[in-house]
Amino acid sequence: MSDPLAAAEAALRTGNTDEAISQLQAAIAEDPARPAQIYRVLVRQLYHAGRYAEGETWAARTVERFPKDAEIRNMRGVLLRRLERYDEALRELDMAIKLNPGDLSAPVNRGNVLLDMKAGAKAEAAWTKLVRQQPRNGEHQRQLGRALMMQERFEPALTRFRQAVALKKDLVEAWMDLAGLLSERHRTQEALETLDKALEANPGQPRLLQAIALVLRRAGQPKRAAAYLQGLLPEHDREPWLHYQIGLSLQDFDRPTANHHFARAVELSPDDLDYLTARIESLERTRTGDEGANIEAAYQLARDLLDRGVELTDGGHIKVLYEVMERVAAFDELKKLPDFRARGRIWAESGRHSALMKQLSAVESDADRQELLEQHLIWGRKTERHAAEQPIRRPPPRAADGRIRLGLMSSDLRQHPVGYFALPLFQDIDPRFDLYVYSYYTGQEDPTQKLMASKAKAFRWHPEIRARDAAQMIADDQLDLLIELGGTTYMNKLEVMGYRPAAKSASWLGYPHSAGLSTIDYLVVDPYVAPEKPGLILEKPLMLPNAWYPLGASAFRAEPAANPEPPAARNGYVTFGTANNPQKYSAHVVAAWARVMREHPTSRFLFIRPEGGTASFRANICAAFEAGGVAADRIDFAAVRGAHLPFYNQIDITLDCFPQTGGTTTCEALWMGALVVTLVGDSVFERLSYSTLMNLGLGDLCARTLDDYVAIAVKLAGDPARIASLRAGMRERMQASPLGQTRQWAADFYQAVATTLGV
Fold first, then answer.
1. Does a structural domain hold residue 592?
2. Which residues contact 325 (CB under 8 A, 6 or more apart)?
3. Is residue 221 part of a domain?
4. pTM of this prediction?
5. What is the domain count for the chain?
6. pLDDT of residue 1
């Protein structure tokens, strides 16, 4: 009989772990009465190979055969920890400790499990005992600090981290824990000084160099972070982490240079998913140069990654790939990513609220709607816990002065759709109100922002402020009601609402769904946007009498002019179309559009989108229409960004997306004379176009079923006289409607707020 342990050791010396595992498994199969050492080596190698489930199975078999073997029980506990079966892991580790109380490896592993479980008090007890047994062990001190930090005992945690680095100056993790906690406590300068000391003890340590950039970015100083990192290039140019960190620091204000550094990071380390997805995301978001080519390049990289069959579990990686696939309407490849529930939970649990907006267009059932609410609540609970860890100071109640202090928080109160819709609140301020505005916009002041600032009691513009500091700033203004208008879109800080910085709070305009925070009391709605089914919003409704938003002059100007003659009258055929973002499309939406065109066989369809310059978007869209029986030569593309309004003069009827309907795009299409047919759903985001059309007296263009949606569109396409009549008078209709009566709309808004506050 051969010596299986010797054969396995020989395989390991050559780096052939799989061969070693096979040798050991074969030996045990040949003779299960092998000594415990062979079983131990097999389980250990399965662990090192990352084959945790298989390793745990073998460990369980070994425990049955050698129940008093403390080492194998300890190893099984570690494997169970890796599988996140924490209660079972604790039972095995407790048995290992009982069998061999003098060995500290099992108590250490037990302490790690308790930290994984976020059981701060129990972890503290475990690590306190270990520190008493080995007081000069820096790692034990560090882990005790982490247990204290979990319990929000920040000063004692800092003390333990300092003891850890004093005992073991090369313990990089402890230096980073110390600097990270200081940074989280807004003690930026101390964090930077700590990292300087860490680098004195560990010169050139990459993780510490990166940590300096992270602290600076967390403090809202990305330009300073970029300058620091670029200073490291002469010495570290061939290190991918440096190019990656430079890209992250530059991406918000110098996208082309960021792209260069992301590409360099991938070149140096092609298998790193963080580097690769950062490059994909940055290309997809690049608006300079040839946008279509940038999107295409991002898509090809993303498709290659999916084709490699890499398992994706990180929420950030999934979000990047999902966004790229949406941009090019790659419906088949979207199916390769985690499903609706799985990806939404991953995004919510990892704090990615902005990713949840991608979920709106994927809702297909009442169960999905309820799941979407739960995903927002998961994010909300986590955000509120974080805010509670660092509470803001509450000023004493202000003296009554007869004034209503209304706060508006958004970085989009400028030349932006949110700014255009909100502008009447500044132009016609109710004399009972004082407006306080909070913006974190990182760009330059424009005329709209300047006008708003001149009308507000206070316009607090702080591009680099952190969320907690912003919450404190707002709390110090002692508002009666704070309304957030930005959600988690770019440059906005929804997490500020988790601190409850005002007496009452509400959401409006920027995000057509409940945010998920119990600290937001109201959702501003109108009679049409408000869900008819109970339970589809988390907040109380703050009801406006007519329209959810107005059509101010800044948004809807005389130019570009709307051609009063329908395109069908000029072309001899009806043109359907859309300018909606492809993130609102799905295979179901395009199939419905194809049904409409199939039933109106002379029609064409025009996509007004920058993605029209992307070969894969055009190919995917045409393939989807062809699958619905519509030839590709009936589909047209206008690859534009920003200058899209004149192209509505080429569209007779806009077919709305569903379930996530148009908002700004619906108003723009109608203003330019392109009629809109919409499908009304149950949730707020399914009812925006419905609100607009009902306020215009065009309820007959609002369908309640998919069949009705198709029938309404086909009937309208067959009525050239009605198309012409509505198109010719649409601007006047809009101006005369509740949407266009901005002074009355503002008065109604302020009165709704006053009524809600009981004033």
1. yes
2. 299, 302, 333, 334, 337
3. no
4. 0.85
5. 4
6. 40
